[in-house]
Amino acid sequence: MRWGGTVVVVGYTHKDVTLNAGRMMFREIEVKGSLGCGLQDFPKIIELVKTGKLKVEPMVTHKYSLDDINEGFEVLEKGEATLIRSIAIP
C-alpha cells in the first residue's frame, strides 16, 4: 500500500480482521468498506440486465481462470487496467 493510499474492502467474512493502527496512522492509509451498490438496487439492476437494457458482457474486458489470477493482478499493478471490469472465473 502506498503512502496516503486507500484500502477498499469489497468482500465479506464473518471473521475479525486485524489492522496495524500504527502503520495506518504513520502512512496515512484510509480504509473503506463497499457493497458496490445498495441491496435495494439489485432488483432494478437485475431487471435491466434481463431486459437487455444493461449490457454486461461488453463491460468485461479481461477474464482470468483461477490458475491465471496472478496475471490479472499484474495487469492491475502495472497500471494496464484501462478496463471496465476484470473477472476471475472458477
List the helices and strands and how they pair.
Layout: E1 6-9, H1 21-27, E2 30-33, H2 42-50, E3 60-65, H3 69-77, E4 85-89
Parallel strand pairs: 1-2, 3-4
Q: What would you say this structure looks like, in words?
A:
The protein is an alpha/beta fold. The protein folds into two domains: 1-34, no CATH class; 49-90, no CATH class. The chain is 28% helix and 21% strand. The protein contains three helices and four strands, in the order βαβαβαβ. The strands form two sheets. It has a two-stranded parallel ribbon. A two-stranded parallel sheet has the order 3-4. α1 links the parallel β1 and β2. It starts with 5 loop residues before the first strand and ends with a strand. The mean pLDDT is 81.
